[in-house]
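Below is how a single chain appears once it has passed through the pipeline. First comes the sequence as given, then the structure the pipeline wrote out for it. We keep one example in the README because the format questions we get most often are answered faster by looking than by reading.
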Amino acid sequence: AVAALDALGAGGWILGVATGKSSRGLLATLQTHGIRDRFMTLQTADMGPGKPNPDMLLNAMKETGADPDATVMIGDTTYDMVMARRAGAIALGVAWGYHPEEDLLSAGAHAVIRDFDELTARLESLDGVPEGGST
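Resulting structure:
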């Protein structure tokens, strides 16, 4: 995961988190792994409506100045995919999480990746995402 974050950072991507975790839980996780400084925006369940309501993603885009068509929500649940679609963003599923690939696609994922090695290439191939987009 850290190598993927390194590659995204090197590619000029603006990174953020939109999670069902509380702010306290998210900060503890990020600080434990020494990656807090990699994310420009942190959106959590205790800041407003939860997924699949698009508010977390809309707030993240507003905070970072990102356009929906240049934003990719990377997630492991159908809620992430629905939230991305409702916010007008690109939905990219990951097959190693909570929901199976078929469910992510049914919920609106534009694509699903199977490991971190696919991430950068898949992001570059998604329609509407310019080089150095936001995620």
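The beta strands are 16-18, 41-43, 72-75, 90-94, 111-113.

See the next section for the split statistics.
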